[in-house]
Structures are given as C-alpha cells and as structure tokens.
Amino acid sequence: MRNSGGGILSDRGPARLRADARRNQERILVSARAVFAEHGIDAPMATVARRAGVGVATLYRRFPNRDALVRAAFAQQIETCARALTEALADPDPWRGFQRLVETACELQREEQGFPAAFVAAFPDSTVEHAQARERAERDLLTLVRRAQAAGALRADFHPSDLAVALLSHCGLVTALPRDSAASRRLVAYLLQSFRAEAAHGALPPPSALSLRSLPLAADSSPRQRPSRA
Amino acid sequence: MRNSGGGILSDRGPARLRADARRNQERILVSARAVFAEHGIDAPMATVARRAGVGVATLYRRFPNRDALVRAAFAQQIETCARALTEALADPDPWRGFQRLVETACELQREEQGFPAAFVAAFPDSTVEHAQARERAERDLLTLVRRAQAAGALRADFHPSDLAVALLSHCGLVTALPRDSAASRRLVAYLLQSFRAEAAHGALPPPSALSLRSLPLAADSSPRQRPSRA
DNA sequence: TCTTAACCGGACGACATCGTCCGTTGGACC
DNA sequence: GGTCCAACGGACGATGTCGTCCGGTTAAGA
C-alpha cells in the first residue's frame, strides 16, 4: 500500500518503478489505446494484457480497475485537448480559434474511437486538481464562444452547450462508423457552417441544460453511468 | 417444428397461438421496448422477462435470441419510419417533406433510445421481402433528395449519405443523453439549417461512401457487428 | 366434465469476465 | 557473484448472463 498515489498516472514522477515495471506500464498503455479503439471501451482487460505481452495481474497491479486504465490511457489525449483549447484562445481570429478547436477535438475522436466513449462513460470520480482544470476549461470555452460572437462570426443564438451537443453527436458518429472519416469530416463541416452567423435563418429551439463538464475538453466529466447492462 | 416461420413477427397471422401465449407475447414486446429504452439494447433478457411477468423460457420460446426480440419489438417503429417516408414523398412541398422525415426519424430515436441502437447493431440477416422494402426505401429517399434539390431548397452539394450521417450522429447523441430532448432538437435544427440551400457557404469535404441501407428508415441494415466486447 | 397437448416458469449447466492470490523470476544494489 | 524484494504471470473463485430442460399447469375442444 506504500505505492498508493503514485504510478497510476505517469505524470507524478517515476515513483521509483523498476525498469521492467516501467516498460510494462508503457506497453499496457499502448495496448489499451489500440484495443479500446478496436473493440470499444468494454473490451476485456485480459485482451489488453495479452496484447501487451503481460499477465492480467500486472495490469491490475498498475491500474486497479478499468476506469483507471482508461483514464491513464487517454491522459495524453486530454492533454492534447487542453492544449488545443489554449491555442484556440490565443488565436487572434476568434472564429478560426473556435473552428480549429472543434476540428481538433473531432479529429482526436476520429483517430481513437475509444477516446470519446471513454469520456462519456468513465469518469465518476474527480480529484481537486481535475476539478480545477475542468473549471478553467469551462471558463476558457465560454470566453472563446463570447469572443467569436462579439466578432460577429459565431451566431448570436449559439449556446455553449451546443458545443457539447456537437461533440457528443460526432462522438456517436465515429463510434458507429469507426472507419469512415469522410462521414466525420462531413458532419463537422455541416455543423461549423450552421454555427456561422450567416447561417442563422429562423429561430432555434431552446438550448440544452447540458453542462460543459461532460465534454472531453475538460479533464473531468459529470458522473454519467456507462450505457451498460441493467 | 410445425410452428417455424410463425409467431416471431406478429404480422403473419395468428398462427394458432393459444390465448395466454398470445397475451404473453404482447406483454413481452411491451416490456422489451421499455427495458431496451431504459437500459439499452444489451439489457439482460431476464430483465425483460421479469418485467413482462413471464419466465425466461417463455421469452426464449417466442423469440429464439436477442436479435429476434429486438427485431420484433421495433417492428412497429420500422413501420412508422416507412410510413413517414411515404408521407414525405407525398408532400407537395419537397423541402417540407424532407424536413418532416428527418424530424420524425429523430423523434422516434428520441422517444425510444433502444430503437437507434437496435438498428445499428441487430440485423445481420435479411429476408427477400426485407431486401425489397429496403431497396424501395433507398429509391424513395433518393427521389426525395433530388426533388428537394430541384426545388432549390436543399443545397446542391447535399449527398444522400449525409442523411445517414445526420441520423447516425443524432442516434449517438440520444444514446449518450437519453433524457435530454432539448439537445436532440437543437442538433436537428442545426443540421436542417445547414442542409438548406441558403446555408451553403464554401465547399464541403467529399461525402461518405456510406450506403443508405444502414439507415433505420429501411427495413434492413448492412451487417454491422454490434460494438460489443472482443 | 374430461382429455390432452400446448404452454408456463424456475432451476440448471455452460460460458465469459472480473479482480485476487500466491509461488516464481529476475532487476537493483552491495 | 550474491542477496533481497519488487514485480511477474497463471490459476482461481466469484459473479452475471445466456439459452435449455423438465415437471407442473391450463386453455381448448369433445
């Protein structure tokens, strides 16, 4: 139990892991990303272990349960999303920043189908630092939207929750059609066009009460149950 | 074995079912729709049976496997979709027909979350009559799209596969957020606006090679594997 | 009312996955 | 090279679901 708190996420220093242990941990993460992308987020843990050339016990020693593994496997993707958000905010053209953020997030979803499914299902618990990161992401998103609206590029009736709607629906599409990147790009193009101010023809129905925290852009998401069996 | 071919779908005549058997079959179908909508398409068969006030054996006697049950449970919804397509084609205003078809299909997805999941996952086998129905649906859809484009309402670069993209992404959204009808309506509104001819600003990426047969509008779908475990 | 066959439902074996246990192996350090 | 202990991996029991079997029940017709 001395090892608790270290080693689950690899961002807290080496934690004095033995060389073979560290090597195996990395192989497990690579395997997990591949298996999750190929067979979905519910693929058996044993499959991940076998592909990594490792016993199940080794996997469970490093990641106490499936959620921990998912979390660690996609930590890098979270990082990419967070960076994309920062870059979007730094873009002098508000619309281009918004557009690139959406495109980057969707590209990530496209590349690893396990990624979106991971975030709509896998994060019931949150730590303080994650909550902070999430709050900052939410605030940044709001700023991005407001700026793009102020510039007259993003339609005025766009609601921040629409971003969640867009990303979740795109997530569903790439999950249903893992190999069809044309479909994904097509959807993104349609959505972005309909978000433009010029596309505002007629009123929209009222926005969702959906919080932005269910987005994969934040480091944590609301406690949704995974869409599993009864 | 005398009963083979009858009783699975209730549209081929009573097949001389005993009164209690017929009653139970109906209760099972009602229960299945409710359970699938509530717990997803992978809910245990025992849950369906219990809710119907019936033993598992009774369920399996009537529906030899999960797919048969799903198929029968949503036969009515297929019917509704087919009727919506016919009505859309009969509408004197091509755009309104198109619009209503999309809205009706999405409304069905919204009302029963099990419905979309059923169709992207559950129909590996097809019969001759289903293939015929599917072909007709495909042809009708194409006609609908062409007409709306000819009327100058639907954008010229709209591709029939975009309908599949729209419905599949919406399906993903309602699966991820089963209770959030505002999100669903919002997405539908955005998509429909972006399909209007006036919304065509700039070129779209190339369309998907996706066939329309994977749509729940047709009575059958392509043999996709369900997104299950490895 | 009586017969009979269709129907009912709970119990059951098969199967898959989860997460743990424990004897063995082999890095790290002297 | 030797020692120690962290790390290894396969076997294991627990759990949950599937689909079947079989003895009891009941609807339908004479």
Automatic annotation (TrEMBL), chains A, B:
Residues 44-63 bind DNA. Residues 22-81 form the HTH tetR-type domain. The keyword DNA-binding applies. Keywords: DNA-binding, Transcription, Transcription regulation. Residues 209-222 have a biased composition (Low complexity). It comes from the Bacteria. This is Helix-turn-helix domain-containing protein.
